[in-house]
Design goal:
335 residues; four-stranded mixed beta sheet; flat; disordered C terminus
Length: 335
Amino acid sequence: MMGKIPGIKKPELQALPQIKERMSFLYLERCLVNRQDGAITVTDSRGTVHVPAASLSVLLLGPGTNISHRAMELIGSNGVSIIWVGEHGVRYYAHGYSLTHSARLLIRQAELVSNVRSRVSVARQMYQMRFPNEDVSSMTMQQLRGREGSRIRSVYRHASKETGIPWNGREYSPENFDNSDDVNKALSAGHVCLYGAVHSVIVALGCSPGLGFVHTGHELSFVYDIADLYKARITIPIAFEVAAEKPEDVGAATRRRVRDAISDGHILEQTVKDIRFLLLGETAAAKQEVETEVLHLWDDKKGLVENGVSYGKEYDGTEKEATKVGYGTILEDKK
């Protein structure tokens, strides 16, 4: 007979730290990831370190990483997003788990993206965040894309001038990270770290990474939408600064700088606010309420009705006895 497995009790959802209070991400490669009580253990040739699982937002697992079932159990219990990435963290393979049980934001996201008028409205709000001193309310999507292109080119030119690093355009290959200049390597590494942090917030809030408003057709379209709000202030300046420093490992140096910038700039907290604002509006987003009982039955007339109840008489007139059954619904003949 198997003995009792040591460890701490699985925390309740309300007891977990909010996403805005967590570390942005932790990138690992060529190591063994396991669990000891409430901590994730990371072991390589240099030894073992312990990381409190509840303090993490997302784990980026690179090549040569082996993770145990017990570690995944702890990660899932604490609502940590986990993303498997390629060499240097520049390719996305898979992810898992969401922190919330509520589909409220997901339903709202689907409603907004499914209507052309509301989709354009949200896209304009995204661009308005980047152009706070301009009125974009009457711009078409084509005009907004052109305006954004000009803004980003200006950001690149400014960063190049500030650091003295030549800029000849964005050139990179996900298949060959080393076949780029240092600034493009840093941009690739920095962007994927930003994507990982934003991705963790999106899935933690219960939204769909694939339902984008500006980007579309990709499983990470919404991730790219939200990450674009922060590139000009985080990853682009950092990439040029790292390239100017000429570190031995451009990818590692960039990841550390982006990690610190996300933490110091409270980007996770800002991302939560921005997503809620875009999907719910300013008033609803400010309430920050938490839903715990979120499973209902849909009704075409009432909207929502209580779940787990067997509803009285059927249309054929046969009397039924209402029975509480948790997440199911059972109709029993009354005897």
